[in-house]
Amino acid sequence: MDYKNIAAAILFFVVLLQAKAQVVFKPGFRGGFSFSNISEMNSDYKTDFYLGGFGEINIRKHYALQPEMTYIRQGANNLARIYYADDVKKVEYRDLQLGYVSFAMMNKFTFGPGIQLQFGPSLDILVNNNLVRRKTYNDAAILVGFAYCFPSGLSIEGRIKKGLYDVLESSYYNNDDSNNRIFGDYNRNVNFQFGIAYAFSEKK
Fold first, then answer.
1. Residue 56 in contact with residue 108, Cβ under 8 Å?
2. 8: phi then psi, degrees, rounded to nearest 5
3. DSSP letters spanning the chain
4. Is the confidence at residue 152, as pLDDT, over 70?
5. Cross-strand pairs, 186
6. pLDDT by residue (tens digit) across 162-190?
7. Choosing a second label site near 162 at 20 to 30 A (CA), which of 13, 18, 27, 125?
8. Average model confidence (pLDDT) for the chain?
9. Element (H, E) at 8
10. The dihedral of CA 168, 105, 202, 194: what is its sign?
11. Interior CA angle at 155 toward 154 and 156, to 5°?
C-alpha cells in the first residue's frame, strides 16, 4: 500500500474542503453612466448608460472573481463624414450608436476598508447599431477600474474599457482630421464607466 499517495490524497481533500468553505457567492447588479468614443476619429464623447448583473465569488479574503453580463450603449457623437456628390465636397455629422451585451470576467482585489482594484477581459456581442459600414460585429476589450465598497454591499465604481478590434470602416467614415492621426485606421471603442453596484447577502 502506497501510504504517500494516500496521505497526499487526504491532504488534497482537506485543502479542497477548506477552500470550498472559504468561497462565498454573492449575486448583484450594477448600472450607471457610459462615456464613449471611437479612437482616431474626429468626434465627441457619447453619454449613455450600462446595466447588468454579476456574481461575486469570494475565493480569498482579499480576492474575488466576478463574472458579469452587462448591456452597454457605446459609440460616438458628431462624427464628421466628408464625402463628394457631383464633385461637390459635403460634410455630414452623425451620432454613432453601438449596443453590446458584454460578458466580462473581473478580478477584484480589496485593499484596506473597502478599496478595490478591478481588471479583466470581456467579450462584447453587438446587438444593435446604426453603422453604415462596419469591420466587425463583435468586440473584445480589457477593463481596469477602481471601486469603494460600503459594508451594506453598495459600491461606487469607475472603469476604463478599451476595445481590441476596429469597429467601423474608416474609408467610409472619412474626415480630414482622422486622416492626419498617427493611427488612422485604429478605430476602436474607448469607454469610461461610472456608476454603482450592489451585492446581495452572502450565499454559501
1. yes
2. -65, -40
3. --HHHHHHHHHHHHHHHHHHHH-EEEEEEEEEEEEEEETTSS-BPEEEEEEEEEEEEEEETTEEEEEEEEEEEEEEEEEEEEEEETTEEEEEEEEEEEEEEEEEEEEEEEETTTEEEEEEEEEEEEEEE--SSBS-S-EEEEEEEEEEE-TTSEEEEEEEEEEEEE-B-TTTS--HHHHTSTTTT--EEEEEEEEEEEE-S-B-
4. yes
5. none
6. 999 998 877 777 655 555 554 446 889 99
7. 27
8. 84
9. helix 3-22
10. negative
11. 135
How confident is the model at residue 67, as a pLDDT?
94
Residue 31 contacts residue 196 (beta carbons within 8 Å): yes
Q: Find cell 471611437 and name the residue.
A: 38
d(CA 92, CA 114): 48
Q: Which residue has the higher pLDDT, 173 or 63?
A: 63
Classify residue 14 by its DSSP letter.
H
For residues 32 and 191, what is the distance between their CA atoms, to the nearest angstrom? 13
Q: What is residue 169's predicted lDDT score, i.e. its pLDDT?
A: 78
Structure confidence at residue 16 (pLDDT): 47
98 vs 83 pLDDT, higher one: 98
* Span 50-73, average pLDDT: 93
Residue 30: φ, ψ to 5°: -145, 150
